[in-house]
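Course assignment 3, question 2. Fill in each field.
Student: A.L.
Task: Predict the tertiary structure for the chain below.
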Amino acid sequence: MDFLNGGGHRIKLKRHEYIRAIIIGFCVFAMLVIIAFEIKHFNNTFNVQSLVIASLVFAIIGGVILSYILTKDQPEMELLTKLQIWVAVIVLSMVVMPPMANLTNRLLTFRSIQEVPVEYIKSDAFFSSRFGQLQGEQMDVSGYHIFIIKDGNLKRIKTKTDPYEGVENGTQILLPVRKGFFGYDYVVLK
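Answer field:
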């Protein structure tokens, strides 16, 4: 029985193949962490739908090009394996690109913060807990949803604190906004 003797027929990887697998695993893990932390910033980016659509188009094009490069010089590779590589690369690109585009838009900007006049509607506190609320438990406020009207559209901004506490509904306020790397404005509130 081979399984008792260390698996004599198993594929033995070389040292550089182990290192490559560890680096790829680390990169995938790092991307998942970036995605998890970046999702919360989507609420505070204006016209984020356009940014997501543009990044998805770029992801599909980039995924197709990368898939072609990975499979073009592999004549011995089965068609099903090539298809799996294409689907995996394109889907992974589509998952990773929108958060990375939003992160790039926010962090690679050198423009100053501008105060933009908007109409304040209201602020609502929200409560969140990983495990739900126990009966009779008093929960602390996790953050605030601030509702404003900008360019005739109702927008919701998510913040940790309520900087507009005591401001009456319908009041004009100055919202700190910065234009991002790709030209999409985002709110600079904590």
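Instructor remarks: DSSP finds three helices and five strands in the chain. The mean pLDDT is 86.
Grade: pending
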